Amino acid sequence: MADLTIRTERTDSDAIVSVGGDLDYDSHGRLEQALDAALDGGPPSGLVVDLADVTYCDSCGLRVLLGAQARARDVGATFVLQGAQGQPARALKLTGLDQVFG
């Protein structure tokens, strides 16, 4: 099990949240807080979530991503999910969420 790492940076228009490790029941709350913080205050034009370094994602992690997409839409920001590979990419495909996130 790999500990979850989260790094947030802002560009002129976007908030970019880079995630690594295991996104699961034990760690999903940390990501949820980080994504909420990225959208709080002056919301960005876009919220980009980079999963390139995520090694595992369960249903709790998928729920957090869906919630972040909805919250971004509610504040008028775009939502981009990028970099999913390996097991997280398979989880997105098996659930059909790869089509939801585009």
UniProtKB/TrEMBL annotation:
This is Anti-sigma factor antagonist. InterPro entries: Anti-sigma_ant, MlaB-like_STAS, STAS_dom, STAS_dom_sf. It holds the Pfam family STAS_2. Residues 4-102 form the STAS domain. PROSITE patterns: STAS (PS50801). It comes from Actinomycetospora chibensis. Belongs to the anti-sigma-factor antagonist family.
